[in-house]
Sequence to fold (263 residues):
Amino acid sequence: MIHSTALIDPRAHLDPTAEIGPYVMIDGPVEIAAGCRVEAHAQLVGKVTVGAGTVIGRGAVIGTPPQDLGFDPATDSGVILGEKNVIREHVTIHRGSKPGHVTRIGDGNFLMVGVHLAHDVVLGNHNILANAALLAGHIHVGNHTFIGGGAVFHQFLRIGDYCVVQGNGSFSKDIPHYCAAQRINRITGLNVIGLRRQGFSTEERAAIKQLFQSLFCSGKNLSDAIAEVSAVVWPEKAARLLEFVRAPSKKGVCPVRPGRKED
Fold:
């Protein structure tokens, strides 16, 4: 199951069922679980853990140091990949930037060609990142979110659950749960099709829509709108949207600007 041209560090631990392709380089105490496949010319460097059933595509590079001029290469950090992820060709995932820190990916994610996850990114479960999506350091992404090709994200922001982000967009502020985002820091509404496909009930979608309208479309500033809706007892899934906007990152939350009219 290991090609004769692969270079395997003696410190690595590979499950006997893992497949290692031609010219793969595994450099360091890498752990690869059952049923994984590492395709030709991929590189896994340092403290990288790969969960069961994950596929790492040709030329992907995982675990190399952050692109930080002040980074000490002796820093003890790593990358943790969950189970059943698909990492396609030439994806790059950098390790954590401080001792004990990791870049962490959950389960069932699909990272298409050329995606970049910088140091200390946390990616949840069942997300899809299309070709050349670029995430800077310390970004947190939730679950079941789709990010379009070529979208770029500034460091330290958050992207919620069940979001859809347009390709080629540019973002430096948080994108709350359930939202559709496009262009430059613009929320255009809710990901209504995605919520329906993911099994949200009519009642759940209606509550989320009502809360979204109260938060973003009432004409009030966001802090005043939050104070007003906080007096209401919201259903669980709608309440998660309120929790998100109550505790934004230092970047703040993207504003809502519906429609396609040019600025």
